[in-house]
TrEMBL record:
Organism: Rubinisphaera brasiliensis (strain ATCC 49424 / DSM 5305 / JCM 21570 / IAM 15109 / NBRC 103401 / IFAM 1448)
Residue span(s) of domain Reverse transcriptase: 145-381
Catalysed reactions, as listed in the record: DNA(n) + a 2'-deoxyribonucleoside 5'-triphosphate = DNA(n+1) + diphosphate
One GO term (biological process): defense response to virus
KW Glycosyltransferase (keyword) present: no
PROSITE patterns documented for this protein: RT_POL (PS50878)
Protein name, UniProt field: RNA-directed DNA polymerase
Stored InterPro entries: DNA/RNA_pol_sf, GrpII_Intron_Splice-Mob/Def, Reverse_transcriptase_msDNA, RT_dom
Amino acid sequence: MWRLFSSLWRLFTGHSGRQAKNPYATFGTTDESTANETFDDAMVSPPEPPRHQRKPKADQRYPRLTKFRYQPGRVSDREHAPQIVTGTPYRYANPFVVSPGMFLDMSNDLRSERLDRWELPQLKTPQDLADWLQLPLGKIAWLTDRFTEANRPVDASKSHYHYCWKQKKSGGYRLIEAPLPLLRQVQEQILDEILASVPVHAAAHGFCSGRSVVTNARPHVGQQLVIKMDLDNFYTRVRYARVVALFRSLGYSREVALWLARLTTSAVPSNLPFPGGEPKQLRLFLARHLPQGAPTSPAIANLVAYNLDVRLAGLARSFQVQYTRYADDLTFSGGEDLQYCSRVFLPLVSQIVRDERFQMHATKRKFLLPSCRQQVTGVVVNEKTNISRKEFDRLKATLYNCVKTGPAAQNHNAHADFQAHLRGRIAYVQQLNPARGAKLLDLYQQIRW
């Protein structure tokens, strides 16, 4: 065994693992101090391994972030805990099965001061919610699938959503869940009178009043490096429990938060057909989640991702990097320092995304240098905010053909108001490049409608 070990040692290090002979015998001296120095010099130390084989020390490895957590007992909510009370329960209250005649009161934790801060409607019980929506409480319970087995529709024909599968450019399918008219009316009221009053983080630019793809791209103009990343299944990964916690944080009682969360989330039927068979991707939609296609989903997703924006903005600030988010598109930009520290910066970004219960898209990551076209949410940001040459030429050709052959022949997508459609596209170009927008506007004014 020793011979085998010695052979392997000589093979990898180039010398024997045995120690040198006794220096007393070699030099024939009885001076112990001289002998010790000679013995130390005679010891052969193993050579230093190549750089790519060296293991980094503990303080040289990538830093790890520690998520801040509240200390136990620091925030007490015992006075607002659900109580088992006796008396006439409110409609659809949870009965206490151990003692008949009693029920679990989950409407006693309303935080009026929080609701008054954002001027939100005061809703304490399900009946208050029904009066605010001006609908019978039984109909609202029907919209939340309260009367169905497993609290989900039996099949697609009994659902309150219209399902449509669309194929992604990167592969796979995206499920569009469009609410039916009555549920859409309820969700629009929740959006206009509750969610729209709560501000989002400054780095969020998608589906926010006063912000657009232009404001999302403007901080990245003239940067040496632009990094684009994508969150995988952004809406679907926001589950029912997180939506309940959001409404609770706004100040609503547990009871009302549960009802609001059910009105703004969806659980697809277990027998929903999937294009091409029965893949594993369908499992992602079985639990209650934010439906992509509901008017409330973008606003709820922005509020749920507030902690994500806070942590990513703080990380970017420490590296002197610009950060913005448009829905599920994350964009970072910076100078030459970002190119050298990206090996440390990007793992920290991925760690924060995982900690906040989101997931990065493995293949959608782009590094854009000044030598190529740096495009952020469709806006070119190399030197200034601008429209791409390809998109400008396409719109210019459409307007030119409208002048020559008439606008009816150019309405290939059958827009109901093609005139307003073209005017909106020209206004978008004017916002990015006024000179190009003026040329397009001159062609537009020559069209005979």
